[in-house]
Amino acid sequence: MCNAVKRALAGIYDNEGWHQLMWRAMMSDNSWERSAQDYINVYEDTMNWL
Question: At residue 13, does pLDDT exceed 90?
Fold first, then answer.
């Protein structure tokens, strides 16, 4: 865990990498609609598997 914190802190000081990380986070779809659709897909896949 300590190494993960060190990598995270090092990433903050990497301006280009930090901006790329922020851009990817802002462009990702974290809506409830997406989450609900993911849940429906898992449910349907499970029902088809049974």
Answer: no
